[in-house]
Specification:
alpha+beta, six-stranded mixed beta sheet, 8 strands, uncharacterized conserved protein from methanopyrus kandleri fold like
Length: 103
């Protein structure tokens, strides 16, 4: 079963930011020929280890999402939180950000 690391951060307005990464990518750096880098720092992403359904729940609840990894990003695409065209790919690793705006 797929697992994910997730770190939660309370934002100044009281909303929640969730940084979610595919478990096996934690602590790695990916850099492509364009010079684009994804640095999956433990200090930013390491948190509780979640099963897929728990990651989905966090994606539903959080106002801001920072997602790294093909599995984490695919879940967000399946939930219609991320458009496939908005995904940044670096060395086979997917990256997406989501900002939910309510008014």
């Amino acid at each position: 079963m797929s697992k994910f690391h997730a770190r939660l951060t309370q934002l100044p307005d009281g909303s929640l930011m969730a940084s979610i990464v595919d478990e096996e990518l934690l602590g790695k750096v990916f850099r492509d020929e364009r010079g684009v880098t994804i640095d999956v720092r433990r200090s930013f992403y390491e948190g509780g280890l979640l099963e897929e359904e728990e990651a989905r729940e966090l994606m539903r609840e959080a106002s801001v999402l920072i997602l790294v990894g093909p599995r984490a990003v695919k879940i967000a695409i399946d939930m219609e939180l991320v458009s496939p065209e908005a995904v940044l790919w670096v060395k086979g690793v997917a990256y997406a950000q989501v900002f939910k705006v309510t008014y």
